[in-house]
Amino acid sequence: MTLYTLAESNIRKTWFYLGFFLVLILLIGRFLSYYFESQFLFLVALFLSIFASIGSFWFSDKIVLAMSSARLIEKKDNPELYRLVENLCITAGLPLPKVYIINDSAPNAFATGRDPNHSVIAVTQGLLDKLERTELEGVISHELAHIGNRDAFLQTIVVILVGLIIRVVDFFFRSEIKPKRDSDEKGPPILFILGIIFLILAPIFAQLIRFAISRKREFLADATGALLTRYPEGLASALEKISQDQEALEAATNATAHLYIVNPFKGKQAKSFLAKLFSTHPPVEQRVKALRGLRT
Q1: Checking CA distances to 175, which of 95, 144, 156, 196 falls within 20 to 30 Å?
Q2: 207 contact partners, CB below 8 Å, separation of at least 6
Q3: How far out from the chain centre does Cα 127 lie?
Q4: pLDDT digit of tens for each residue in the chain (296 aa)?
Q5: Looking at the annotation, which residues are catalytic?
Q6: Three-state DSSP class for residue 247
């Protein structure tokens, strides 16, 4: 498989999952409109979910950087790192993001921001100390790929969709509003029972789709990053070093862990099928295998 076909494959799968999301929402809306004979409640929940997510999206970079205790640097503070980011940005055709360093000896990195013009890249001191230059280039190119692919924006849309489904389902089961139809006018009881079961399972399906999209975007960022450097081995080697390092990242929290290039909670990477379904990152072994199987 080439870098181009791998990237295209992950983009197609992302759109497939997003389409499944929309189908899920439409089915929920159809059931509620049938139950209440009105779509008003569904629309109210939609707007509440969107407005609740806008604030966190707009200030996401500031929130994450504050939680990570990251320090903004200028070119004079670390010329080598700054030039590396500058050169890769020129190659990628991206504006230069703000560069931050996290004072933590565990190797890791993340990128965030609402769009390429308001983006940041943060790397730990441990990453700078423990990786070779080609490996560091691979990590930076991966994070720039997230920026160029607008993954922060996509993930915000996904979070809004998941939040919408959870809020609507929660509202339905907590609501004391009675349906406008009598129970004997709703059609076959089995359809109503199946509808209730569907609503119970919908939030789980939504979360599974969210995690699947996140994993595909990681694969896409790997492929896109390898396209920038034309050296997949650099990123593959970096992923191995970061995942094999036994030092946990103290700056990471459950709220920010999904942003990092590798799970920052070392020793907690379960490999069961169920654990993989609920993981935001693909197993490092799969990512390394995919990178080393690519042709540039």
Answers
A1: 156
A2: 162, 278
A3: 21
A4: 444 455 566 567 667 766 776 777 777 776 766 666 655 655 665 565 556 556 555 666 677 788 788 999 999 999 999 999 999 999 999 999 999 999 999 999 999 887 888 899 999 999 999 999 999 999 999 999 999 888 877 776 777 677 777 777 777 777 655 555 554 555 567 777 777 888 888 888 888 888 888 888 899 899 999 989 999 999 999 999 999 998 889 888 876 788 899 988 865 555 556 666 778 889 999 999 999 987 65
A5: 143
A6: coil
DSSP character string of 143-163: HHHHHHTTHHHHHHHHHHHHH
Q: Are 88 and 144 in contact (CB under 8 A)?
A: yes
By residue range, what is the domain housing residue 144?
3-292
Specify the number of domains making up the chain.
1
The helix/strand/coil state of 2 is strand
Q: Write out the two tokens for 190.
A: 């089995």
Instruction: Annotate 82-143 with three-state secondary structure.
Output: HHHHHHHHHHHCCCCCEEEEECCCCCCEEEEECCHHHEEEEEEHHHHHHCCHHHHHHHHHHH
Encoded tokens for 131:
């990786």
Cα angle vertex 126, ends 84, 64, to 5°? 80
Residue whose tokens read 């759109």: 15
**Spatial CB neighbours of 28, under 8 Å, sequence gap ≥ 6:** 42, 165, 168, 169, 198, 199, 202
Backbone angles phi, psi at 121, to 5 degrees: -125, 130
pTM of the model: 0.77
- Residue 108 near residue 140 (C-beta atoms within 8 A): no
